[in-house]
Amino acid sequence: MIKDENLRTYEALTHEAAMDAAERRELTPEQRAGSRRLLAYAHAQLAELERADARRVRCVRPAIQAMQRPSLLERLAEIFRAQPRVVFAHRDFERLSDDDLRSALEDAESMIERMA
User: Fold this and answer.
1) pTM of the complete model beyond 0.85
2) H or E element: which one contains 36?
3) pLDDT of residue 15
4) CA distance 85 to 47
5) Residue 113 burial by CB count (10 A; 0-12/13-18/19+): exposed, middle or buried?
């Protein structure tokens, strides 16, 4: 699954351009083969990125991994109320995905543990 909106848009545009060219029979057999190889390469690269994301998410402790969005947001709010001087690069947590919220909470909890 492609998560980056710009990448998704680019993929849709390139697909449409390729379909238009194929309809006009502008592609030679060699070009079609090259296109298939490039597509296979792109899919392999995207799969590797998704595997890397999945590995990153696994670094989150199981208790945080099991939390739902409202609990994640509330715990982050608790941390920032208890530690008002804590600096995080991103505090607009409402816009983050659940996985990103889990990573942020893991980072915050780890920071608290290191400060103790």
Assistant:
1) no
2) helix 29-58
3) 83
4) 39
5) exposed
